[in-house]
Specification:
By secondary structure, the protein is mainly α. It has a domain of 130 residues: Orthogonal Bundle (Arc Repressor Mutant, subunit A). Helix content is 45%, strand content 11%. The chain has seven helices and six strands; from the N terminus they run ββααβααβββααα. The strands form two sheets. Strands 1-2-6 form a three-stranded mixed beta sheet. It has a three-stranded antiparallel beta sheet with strand order 3-5-4. Strand 1 and strand 2 form a beta hairpin. Helix 2 crosses helix 6 and helix 3 crosses helix 4. The mean pLDDT is 90.
Length: 193
């Protein structure tokens, strides 16, 4: 199902079919690159991700079949197909994660998302000296809180609302900033005497 976010951009709710299609690390990367950097060809994407253009082309066609990417007819011609992300973002309902038939694809998808988040953060760490004006503005924090599931949902809703309050069209001097948020319970393994 496609919806509109607060700025009128298309967002998609993943269903079983799209979750299965997105349960591949390369597909998650391709959609992410198209969202962040805009339309590209399979050849251009192949160079970025270190794959053959045949491989990226095949994955793009699979993503197009489930509506995650679409051909950009304004840029393409008979020799060259351009692709763009079909949505500005997507959400996954938690009911998909509890479906036993989707346990494998859901785990693959979540691991791909975490790998993508890690890669983006690691790239920034490697490039941070290239961002002198941003020293003191970026943050890598982690917290351990004692919460009930209800309080965790409340926290997530408040963080989402806060992040959305900063969403706007790009202005002069603005940079694209990745905001990654993870909140999940942890098992404790205290050492016993």
């Amino acid at each position: 199902m496609t919806e509109r976010d607060a700025r009128g951009r298309k967002t998609a709710d993943l269903n079983a079919k799209t979750l299965r299609a997105m349960a591949h690390p390369l597909r998650v990367r391709l959609v992410g690159i198209l969202r962040m950097d805009g339309p590209a060809t399979a050849t251009g994407l192949a160079k970025r991700v270190g794959e053959s253009s045949g491989t990226t082309s095949w994955h793009l066609r699979q993503l197009a079949e489930v509506g995650m990417v679409e051909e950009d007819a304004d840029r393409g011609n008979k020799r060259e197909r351009w692709w763009r992300a079909a949505h500005a973002g997507h959400r996954t309902g938690h009911e998909l994660y509890s479906d036993p038939e989707l346990a494998g694809p859901a785990s693959d998808y979540l691991h791909s998302i975490l790998t993508t988040h890690y890669r983006a953060a690691a790239d920034f760490v490697s490039e941070r000296q290239e961002w002198p004006a941003w020293q003191g503005a970026w943050d890598f924090s982690d917290y351990l809180l004692h919460l009930t599931p209800e309080k965790a949902r409340e926290l997530n809703e408040k963080v989402d609302a806060l992040v959305e309050s900063y969403r706007r069209d790009p202005g002069e001097g603005d940079e694209l900033v990745a905001v990654q948020w993870h909140a999940f319970p942890r098992k404790r393994h205290p050492e016993r005497p």
